[in-house]
Amino acid sequence: MSLDTLASPPLAPSQPDAAALVRLKAHYDSMPPVAVMDLSIAGYDGQRLRLHAPLARHVNDKGCAFGGSLASMMTLAAWGLVSLHVEAAGLDADVFVADSQIGYLAPLFADLDVEAEAAPGADWSTFIATLRSRGRARISVVAHARLPEGGSATEFTARYVAILRR
């Protein structure tokens, strides 16, 4: 689902909540460093969140995407994914990145298209159940920035923590 389709007819129950994407985009835009990134939500299917930003806003001295921008985009995509799952569960929690690692595999000479999803072995239902019962939970997330010709320019792994608000 993209933000371009938000004006379409009401979503079927199996589709992600379009209003949640609008709230997520507004939250991103409320942070001054993020607002200048000119990022957009390119899609969300309930399992993967995709973000997009124009290369022109993130170009380095070599004409390719700035590494810090790639790291920020992947951090934001993973954070947004966790936040969407927490909200979909009807919970009110703060979400934080606990730790992360990034690998830069190839220069990206195109717009930044980033996708985040749960890491292999991570389970959203266990994460939400733990958050409900303990008031805090962790989940591992992976993200990558795609090269136009296929493959990844960067790979990102991180653990996110959610803590219920009291």
Which structural traits does this protein have?
166 residues, alpha+beta, Thiol Ester Dehydrase, Chain A, 6-stranded antiparallel beta sheet, 4 helices, disordered N terminus, Thioesterase putative domain-containing protein, HotDog_dom_sf
Could you explain how this protein is built, in words?
The chain is of the alpha+beta class. It has a single domain, classed as Roll (Thiol Ester Dehydrase, Chain A), CATH 3.10.129.10. Helices cover 30% and strands 33% of the residues. The protein contains 4 helices and 6 strands. The protein has helices at 18-30, 32-35, 67-88, 124-134; strands at 40-44, 48-53, 93-104, 112-118, 136-146, 152-164. It has a 6-stranded antiparallel sheet with strand order 1-2-4-5-6-3. β5 and β6 form a beta hairpin. α1 packs across α3 (67-88). The longest helix has 22 residues, at 67-88. It is globular and about 50 Å long. It starts with 17 loop residues before the first helix and ends with a strand. This is Thioesterase putative domain-containing protein. Residues 29-162 form the Thioesterase putative domain.
